[in-house]
Specification:
This protein is of the alpha/beta class. Helices cover 32% and strands 15% of the residues. It has one domain: Alkaline Phosphatase, subunit A. The longest helix has 34 residues, at 291-324. Residues 28-428 form the Sulfatase N-terminal domain.
């Protein structure tokens, strides 16, 4: 097995659970907010220059986790969030050596229920608004109402979006539609309906924004807020953010260097040609770029900032609705991102018009490696990699009735697999051992309740990653990591959080030990996927 509980941790958890019962007079509500392709340092409270006052206020009156992890990619992270398992355990990401058609990436096994199903016996109503990107439908996943946005290439004119799994009409520019705002609109509407129709029941709301995922598209007035801000380039921005991160988070080690040899994870040369001479597909020094490249790149970051800024303002509207309901103090709010900033460069949807205003419906721009390296400050690499830049994310937690601390840091390593068992536990439930006469595998996540009360390290055996050949394992402060086809690297994250100093050559025994553990977990997951369903 990959995780074990210590007696000391069990006692701390019991004591915290007891104190939660004393603090909260009733079951808490839950608002889980998920950003898409947001980097570690893209929030003001994590070192950014982007205006995010609503999320900053949640952090100031709640907690910030400094070592929280996702799965490095969109659909694996969402599967883990809603199921409580690693994506490979529930068939939502591939495993090496396992046929892709053999439940390794596709439909979840029948035992893999989602959070709404687990919360329903506790009396919860569940609502979803935004992205989905796992198998099945939101309503089939147990949600009572859902606005499902499934057109990832059009922020202004979507053709695929659904209300309670029923397709809605396509939108045009005359409809004054912007995805980030409309996703918040539906979240607010579901809350209003809940207050009117089910005031005595707690709620679980899953608010899954598309932003700031490409294409970089935002209202012109939002982009104007950042005009001229990024002319100094990503080199300087990374330094600026690192200074703030040291003050706000106290991360150990040094700022990583740019890696000019690292480009997008997927090669689309026709997109580079279509985007023109201003596009740059490497993390190059800013002063090595032409004036045309600098202007083109600065415009892209202005749009990215506008998208994050707008998302924060829409989050503020949702929070205001919960406050108007008198439920803010008793609502657990969790905010994080599905992966790090993205180095991808591609053109999809209706294509890219070079003559169109950057950020408009007719443009299709991506952040690219340079700005992604700034988004992920102070870390190396990007979305799809499992170096810290691909998997480290902010986690902001706010719950006045249950958390007495304000503005404190939590340093325990934690992972998206921990959120489902934490939510179920805070709701007063226990993780099930069976469902529909099927035995469930042991849950790999940890209830983080103890860490909400005090800055304790939640004990676990290890954390494990695999995505598209990229692989990693963290045990205590030791981490091995390797990009696809590369040898293992070894880092002591307790002194070198940004993975600057590879210790593999000087400590081969630790590499051997952690590699064996990585293989052990892989084999455990492989056996689970290939085993027949086990009935009672």
């Amino acid at each position: 097995m990959i995780c074990y509980l210590s007696r000391a941790y069990f006692l701390v958890s019991v004591l915290f659970a007891t104190s939660v019962n004393a603090w909260a007079a009733k079951q808490p509500n839950f608002l889980v907010i998920l950003a898409d392709d947001l980097g570690y340092s893209d929030l003001g409270c994590y070192g950014s220059e982007i205006s995010t006052p609503n999320l900053d206020a949640l952090a100031e009156n709640g907690l910030k986790f400094t070592q929280f992890y996702n799965c490095g990619r969109c659909w694996p992270t969402r599967a883990s969030l809603l199921s409580g398992y690693y994506p490979q355990q529930v068939g939502r990401d591939a495993l090496p050596g396992v046929d892709n058609n053999a439940r390794s990436r596709g439909k979840r096994p029948s035992w893999a229920r989602l959070l709404p199903h687990m919360l329903k016996p506790r009396g919860y109503r569940s609502y979803h608004s935004g992205k989905w990107h796992i198998d099945g439908s939101p309503m089939g996943g147990g949600f009572d109402h859902s606005y499902y946005f499934n057109d990832y290439d059009h922020y202004f004119t979507p053709t695929l979006h659904y209300l309670d799994d029923r397709q809605l009409p396509a939108k045009s520019l005359t409809d004054n539609f912007y995805a980030t705002t409309v996703i918040a609109d539906y979240a607010i509407e579901f809350l209003k309906q809940h207050e009117e129709q089910h005031p005595d029941q707690p709620f679980f709301e899953y608010l899954a924004f598309i932003a700031p995922h490409f294409p970089l598209q935002a209202p012109a007035e939002d982009i104007a807020r950042y005009q001229g801000r990024y002319g100094s380039g990503w080199d300087e921005l990374r330094k600026e953010r690192w200074v703030k991160i040291q003050k706000l988070l106290g991360l150990p080690g040094e700022l990583s260097s740019l890696e000019p040899e690292i480009g997008p994870p997927y090669d689309f040369p026709e997109a580079i040609e279509q985007l023109g001479a201003g596009e740059v597909n490497r993390e190059l020094a800013w002063d090595s770029l032409t004036t045309e490249q600098q202007e083109f790149q600065a415009a892209k970051m202005e749009i990215h900032a506008a998208m994050v800024d707008r998302m924060d303002r829409e989050i503020g509207r949702v929070i205001d609705q919960i406050r108007e309901m008198g439920q803010l103090d008793n609502t657990v709010i969790l905010f994080f991102s599905d992966n790090g900033g993205s180095a991808e460069i591609m053109v999809r949807g209706d294509g890219h018009d070079p003559e169109a205003m950057p950020g408009s419906q007719d443009s299709f721009l991506c952040l690219g490696p340079g700005w992604s390296s700034a988004s992920n400050t102070p870390f190396r690499r990007h979305k799809t990699w499992v170096h810290e830049g691909g998997i480290a994310t902010p986690l902001v937690v706010h719950w006045p009735d249950g958390i007495h601390a304000s503005g404190e840091l939590r340093h325990t390593p934690a992972h998206v697999i921990d959120l489902a068992p934490t939510i179920v536990g805070l709701a007063g439930g226990e993780w099930p051992s069976e469902y529909a006469d099927e035995h469930l595998p042991p849950n790999p996540g940890r209830n983080l309740a103890a860490a909400l009360g005090t800055d304790v390290i939640i004990p676990r055996d290890a954390l494990w990653w695999y995505h598209e050949g990229n692989r990693a394992l963290r045990k205590d402060n030791w981490k091995i990591v390797a990009a696809k086809g590369d040898p293992w690297e070894l880092y002591d994250l307790g002194t070198d959080r940004a993975e600057n100093h590879d210790l593999a050559e000087e400590n081969p025994e630790m590499v051997k030990k952690l590699k064996a553990k990585w293989i052990e977990v892989r084999e455990e997951f492989t056996n689970l996927l290939q085993a027949p369903n086990t009935k009672k």
